[in-house]
Structures are given as structure tokens and as C-alpha cells.
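Hey, weird one. I pasted the MIR domain-containing protein sequence into the form twice and got a warning about non-standard characters only the second time. First submission, copied straight from the form history:
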Amino acid sequence: MDDLPPRYDGTLQPEVWVQDLRFFCALRGIHDQATVLNIAILRIDRNIPIPKDIDITSFDSLVNVLKDHVTHSVFRADSLEKLNKLKYDRNKDMSEFIAKFTSFCNDANITDREEKKDYLLRNMPDDIVRDILRSRIKNLNSFDKVIETFKDVMLEHKRQIRYGSKIALKHVATGRFLSSNKDIKYDTGYKQQMAFCRGWKLDKLYDFWIVIPALNQYVRSGNPVPFNSVIGLKHQQSGLNLHSHYMESPVTKQQEVTCFGNLNDDDNWLLQRHSTTTNYDNSGYWEVDDTVSLRHAKTKKSLSSHDFMMKNGFQEVTCHADGHEENHKWIVEILE
């Protein structure tokens, strides 16, 4: 009942229960600590008896008695199991994860800094993030600094594009999103599904692409994508792959870009940071807002677009030249 102070039944930390009970009493104008202590003793479940030979004179002595009872041992075991099952999800709030992590550590009576580091590392989403975090927290002597470092690593992690990520690629020069539609095909060339740039506002039905490994490559889903990798892009709505081949595009007579079915070597694209010269900074991993070029691995021409419109009003997408021009710049603006 709401008008009664909380009961202690062994399902939470004794210190937390005492704090809640004292707060309850304070709200009702009960400030005498001896009275509050007596109320606390009366609100302990009858299945958790206080030994008759122990004199409870303070909240500390009460907490110690409750922690000595077998129910608290079970509570700690439950908390440790919850801690072992805890995993960080990059789509969830970091603060929520840390709150649960610290609560489970306290409830499981894990106080040693190095032991807490080990559990935090176990809770990471994959081995790559785990190794990065391990290297950065190895010599830290404050767990507050460990949490701060966790925050920095996770912010990097959230921005990284991974195999299996759904992305929206924006053409930098024109501001339009790379798109396709299973119902729109070229009426020239091989008459395959058309790839084009649609509009300045994202259309989640048609503008999402899934990052996949290149032909004959196995990469675990969730791994970050290093620069200088050869990748594939699967159109989410149609399930077809971004594709190019030795065929002229309908408007500018550059190299046609389409979406095509079974993965083959015409679907492979070399990911690089965009450069106006032949010197590329290909260190690190692909992240949101990186300006990149995608070079068709087989023909060595780069994914491009421009202000030339096709008959259907969509902006033509082609492969063209060596990737150093403004029209070869693309960024990921949306990541899911």
C-alpha cells in the first residue's frame, strides 16, 4: 500500500531499501532516526529474521545483518547473472547502459576496479570495439575515467558504417540521394533496373542501401568497413546490387550504373576517402559524413552524378573518370 513504508524482502540492495525508507519517513515528517530505525526493523519480511543476539543500533548494523542473510547471497547471484547477460546496443542510450552496468556491479558486490573493467569489456557488442576499449582503459586508475573513455569509444562506434548497415548516400555536389526502384528500368542498354538520384529529402523506401561484402569475400556482419575495402551495396527495396558495366548511359554517354541481381564482379566498388590527387588517406574506418569516392573495381571508373536529368525527371548516375572530381563526392548522411 502507498501509505506504508517499503518492505524489505531480499530483492534489492539493503542500502537502497534503507534510502527509500528514510525518504518515505522524511516526506511524512518523521525525522527522529531511532524511530525511523524501528520502522525499518518492522518492515523487514518475516522470512528474514534478525538474530536475537544482535543488537541493531544503527542503519549500518541493520544493513550488515541483512547482507549476512542467505537471501542477499541469492540476490547477488541474480545480479551477477544479469551483469553477464548485459550487452551494449549502439542503438540504445549510453546512459541507460551505464546505469544498469553500475547498478548490477553494486548489487553483485563487484567493487574492484580491474574486475569492473573486465565485466565492461565483456559487455561490448563485438571484438573490434572490445579491443579498442581494452587498449584505451588498460592503464586508467579511475573508473570514472573508464566510463568517460567508454563514452568516447561508443560515440566513434555509433558513427562507424558496418557491414549490414543501412545507409543513405548523398551526392555532395547536387545534394540528392542515390536511389532506385524495382519498377523503374532503363529502356536502353541491357534494360536493367535504373540507379539514379531522386531528391533532396530522404525517401526511406527507395533511398536505403545495405553495405555488403564484395564477391567471394566473407566478412562478419557488424564489422566496421575500413577504407580501401572493396564492398557491395544492396538496394533495400529491390534486393538488387549497385552495378556497372561497359555500356553507355542514356544521357551523357558515360558508363551506365544499374541495379542487378546475383552478386558478381560488376557489383564490386572500391571505397576511398575522396581526394583531388592520387594521394589517398585511407586510414581508419568509414564513418557518417566522411566524403568518399566509390570506384568501380572492374572498370576503374568512379560513381558519379550531375545535373543532367533523364526523361523521367530523375538525375542521371554514371561511372566516370578516376574519382578526383567534385561530381565523384558522396557522403553517408543517414545510418541505421
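That's the output from the first submission. The warning seems to come from a hidden character in my clipboard, not from the data itself. The chain has a mean pLDDT of 94.
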